[in-house]
Every structure is written in structure tokens, then in C-alpha cells.
Amino acid sequence: MEIRPIRLPHDLSSLGGMICDTFQYPENPEWSVQTDEKEQISHVIGSFRRLWPLIFVMGVFSPPLRDMFRGYVAVEDGKIVGVTIFQRHGTTNTWVVGTVGVIPKYRRRGLARKTLERALELMKERGAEKTWLGVINGNTPAQRLYESLGFAVYDATMDYTLTDPSTPSVPELPNGYAISRLPRSDWRTRFEFEKRITPEEVRLYEPIEKGRFRRPLMVRLLIPLLNLVQRVKEEAFAVRRTEDGKVVARCGYEVSLRGKGVNSISVRLDPKHPELAEHLVGLMLKKVVERSPKLRVEIGVPAWMPAIAEAAESYGFKRRVEYLKMGLLL
After folding, report:
1. pLDDT tens-digit profile of 234-245?
2. pLDDT-derived band at 321, boundaries 50, 70, 90
3. Spatial distance between the Cα atoms of 214 and 90, rounded to a whole number of angstroms
4. pTM to 2 decimals?
5. Shortest CA distance to 131 belongs to which of 144, 142, 143, 121?
6. Cβ atoms of 318 and 293 closer than 8 Å
């Protein structure tokens, strides 16, 4: 058994199939990677491979770009059977573990622990001060592994899904508020808003720092190219109080223009303004359905934004899975 760093772009194709095989839960099918998600993973990997020569060159001039995709794999008989994928959170010293997985027949051999421990070592070498990850609430073996390495639960996110969506009837935006597009370049609005609404216990592991929101030049250039190659459309919006211009919500959507994959919406709402939830969820859903009908729609909702969860359910979204967020101070 060999534990080694991910080799890009060589390992990409193998990783796509391996991840889809790994995250299958016959006893809890709602946890499993769905058919439309498999197609989307395959498409994203193909797009990444097409752009790899450009990404490689850009990474030479941008250290943060090189930290956008790090990982370790466990290899047996030339086959990738386990993986931990992680990345720096913007240009900060906080890192995010995105994927930890082992193909079922190779489990209970310590491979998840070995790849994750190697990941933590590299994070420390690169100046990491803290890291976090998500684990399905109910996946007891994974949670116990993370706890044994010092991770602690600090938050939760509920993933909701809507199959066969239709154009909703959206209530009017309440009086006293205005909504406008939020340019990708306007990092400061996002930063100031999150700094104001994020609970203290969440900020311990996910600090609200400028480096999370102010993207380096090479990353700003890369995102539109990735969207173009993947045929993805995204927009973001900010909601302000008309009396003083204070931002009280931000929302957005991402749609596939290929007619395949999964669409998503997002709403971040100041908990002091729950009256906006139904309008914003409905508006984002309407924009998605108008631009990319028939595809399943997803939304992730933090546990501390119950108004968004209630609004999503009112439009027919069903809770699919709850992720516990676990953090570690390095």
C-alpha cells in the first residue's frame, strides 16, 4: 500500500470514478452520490483536464492557486482506493478538507486516517492554523475518526433537494428593502456582511477574514473560464434596507446550461430579518427554473438560519442529509 500526493492531471479520471464508488450507502440511499451528481462530477473533471495546461501555468505565478487542490491518495496494485482532498480557504491560514473516502472493500485498514494525517501534516508545513470538514450526521465511524484526531463539532448544515421543480409563485419583496446584483469583484460587501452575522462559535474555526473573500488575480481570471468550459451560469445578489443601505441578505444561484447535472441556489440571511426568507428562496428558485428547467435543485442551509429552512420546505424542498461541521485548531 502506497500513500502519496495526488498527481495532477494524471489522477483526475481515476478519482472521479473512485469517489462515486466510495460514497454509496445502500442502507441510507439519500446519502449516496446520485446519478445526476455522478454526471456532474465527470463533467467537472473533464473541464478541469481541458484547462489543466493553463491552470498549471497560472499556478506558477500564484501560490494560492496551487493550494486550491491538494490531496493524498492510497494506492494498491496501481489503483486509487482511498483519498483525502483539501484546500486553503482563500489566502488565509484556514484550510478545508473537502473529501475523505475509502472504497468499501478497503475500509477498516486505517487508510482514511493515514491520508488525513498526511494532509494535516502538509497543512501545518504551509502555515495552517485551523481546519474544518463536514461529516454526515449518522456516519458514526467517520465522526469517531475525526474526533480521535482532535476535531470537534461546531456547526451543522442541512442539505435540501427539490426534484422536478416548477416555476414558483413568489411573494413580493417586503417594503423597506431593495435587491440588486452583487458583482463577483465586490468582495468587501460579502466580507462585511458575514463578519456581522456569523455566530462566534462558527468564527472560531471559520474566521471571517479578508483573504476568504478577496480572491487573487489568477483565481479571478480562472473562475469565468471554468464556468465557460463547464457551461455554468451564476449570479449573486445583495438585499439592502432602503433607509440606510445596510446589507441584510445575499443570495445567488448556479445553473447548468447543458441540461445535465444539478442546479443550486443559496441564501445567506441576517437572522434578524426572517421576513425576507420566503421571497429570496422563491426568487432564486424561479431564476433557476427559468434558465435551466427540469434539473434537480439543491440548497444548503446553516442550522442557525431556520427561516431559510422553513421557506425551502414551503416550496417543496425535502431535507436530504445533515452535515456536522467539525473543526480542529492546528
Report:
1. 999 999 999 999
2. very high
3. 8
4. 0.95
5. 121
6. no
Cα 304 to Cα 2, 169, 209, 264, 301: the distances in Å are: 42, 26, 20, 20, 8
- Amino acid identity of residue 171, one-letter, is P
User: What CA–CA distance (Å, rounded) separates 8 from 86?
Assistant: 14
Residues 36 and 295: beta-carbon distance below 8 Å? yes
Taking alpha carbons only, the member of 307, 291, 299, 280 closest to residue 256 is 291
CA distance 224 to 233: 10
Tell me the pLDDT tens digit for each residue of 171-194.
999 999 999 999 999 999 999 999
Report the distance separating Cα 29 and Cα 320, nearest Å. Answer: 10
The predicted structure's pLDDT at residue 61: 85
Q: If you write DSSP's letter for every residue of 27-81 in order, what string do you get?
A: TSGGGSPPHHHHHHHHHHHHHHHHHHHHHHHHHHH-HHHHTTSEEEEEEETTEEE
Q: Which helix (H) or strand (E) holds 255?
A: strand 247-256
Residue in 197, 185, 160, 172 with CA at minimum distance from that of residue 313: 160
Residue with cell 489522477: 11
Read off the pLDDT of residues 125-141 as tens digits, 9 standing for 90 and up. 999 999 999 999 999 99
Mean pLDDT along residues 203-228: 93
Cβ–Cβ < 8 Å for 45, 12:
yes
Give the pLDDT of residue 64: 83
Summarised one tens digit per residue, pLDDT across range 90-114 is: 999 999 999 999 999 999 999 999 9
Peptide bond into 274 cis (omega under 30): no
Q: Yes or no: say if 94 and 132 are a contact pair by the CB < 8 Å rule.
A: yes
Three-state DSSP at 162 gives: strand
